[in-house]
Amino acid sequence: MGDTRTADETGQGPGLPPVITFREPGSFARSVMAERHPALIQQVRDAFPYGPRQLRALDALLHEIAHGVVEPLDHGSPDRDLWLEWGREHLGRPWFDTPFLWGESYFYRRLLDAVGYFGEGPWRGVDPFAPFKRAELSGGTVEEELRALDDLVHLPAAERASALLHASLWGNRADLGFRGPGGAPEPAGGTPAGGLVADDGAALWSLLPPGARATVAVIADNTGRELIPDLVLVDHLLRHGHADRVVLHVKPGPYYVSDAMTADVADCVRRLAGASGEAGAIGGRIREAMGAGRLDVRAHAFFCAPFPYGRMPGDLREELASAALTILKGDLNYRRLVGDRLWPGTTSFTELTAYFPGPVAALRTLKSDVVVGLEPRALEELERSGHAWRTSGTHALIQVRP
């Protein structure tokens, strides 16, 4: 993929707010490295009957995070040279001194190395997060949400479109890593506990009028309870003529705990198609759309790279430029879209995303500190509330740059 590091990653760009690191005591980022990552190592350790080699490697990674410095990938790792280049300013430093975006990404890459995902042994290609994904997909909550689709069938198209857009948005709370130890609890009852801090939903639909022969790109985030409503929204776009074709971008391999890969798309389509009522009908239409090429799944390597979207390679930029709209799902994609920095909350979303090669929409529940594009009065009220509204998953946003 080449060297895509810039001042945007290191925090040295002129006139820019600092890049978020794990360094600040009491910060959300620090809690991720100090609490969530160690807990995840233990969860992965418990989920599989790993042998001594994998167990030693996991224990070593846990010790390194807390007491050591950032070490390179093992010799023989297929992308070792790439990460040596990407991490040349971070290797040999304490983990807590690295940028949040880079360090979090590298942690997951090291975790894959520890369990032998890229090795030549029997654990090659075994997704360490698969048990968590499958448990969620087969749970009673998913069944309840699939049955709820029957209630939307007779709604007018505009009302159904709005309901499905919001289902896709709030489905982003279904983040297995976020709900692990140290993560905020998900609001009960399946309904938002907070609200929208920005709502450009009308602008989104104005870019996709019925009958437009448009291609829409959807950059997915989590599988399971988020990807299913994403697929339901895709079905609506295709069925009602808001898009003639949808390209669904997923990760090429395991990344963050519940990030969607092609295998997860297949699991979710099977879950839909095997359901009764409207969910089953949607699953059947999704399969037909995939077979006809109207729904295409892509998995570009850049989606597992530790960089903002301003550094996307030319082939991906060219592809997204041809879309009538690119919809980015989730918190990580938002951080990569606007830059993982301590921006003032009123910073212009439009200006920060002006580099993006086409119209772009962000659908995201707030689970990290970065947020931009807010009205001053709304931001002031949120800050006065006393709640951790930036990181609790109780608030969300729809932001569009036409």
TrEMBL record:
<dbReference type="InterPro" id="IPR002791">
    <property type="entry name" value="ARMT1-like_metal-bd"/>
</dbReference>
<dbReference type="Pfam" id="PF01937">
    <property type="entry name" value="ARMT1-like_dom"/>
</dbReference>
<protein>
    <recommendedName>
        <fullName>Damage-control phosphatase ARMT1-like metal-binding domain-containing protein</fullName>
    </recommendedName>
</protein>
<comment type="similarity">
    <text>Belongs to the damage-control phosphatase family. Sugar phosphate phosphatase III subfamily.</text>
</comment>
<keyword id="KW-0464">Manganese</keyword>
<dbReference type="InterPro" id="IPR039763">
    <property type="entry name" value="ARMT1"/>
</dbReference>
<dbReference type="GO" id="GO:0016791">
    <property type="term" value="F:phosphatase activity"/>
</dbReference>
<keyword id="KW-0378">Hydrolase</keyword>
<dbReference type="GO" id="GO:0046872">
    <property type="term" value="F:metal ion binding"/>
</dbReference>
<dbReference type="InterPro" id="IPR036075">
    <property type="entry name" value="ARMT-1-like_metal-bd_sf"/>
</dbReference>
<dbReference type="GO" id="GO:0006974">
    <property type="term" value="P:DNA damage response"/>
</dbReference>
<keyword id="KW-0479">Metal-binding</keyword>
<feature type="domain" description="Damage-control phosphatase ARMT1-like metal-binding">
    <location>
        <begin position="33"/>
        <end position="375"/>
    </location>
</feature>
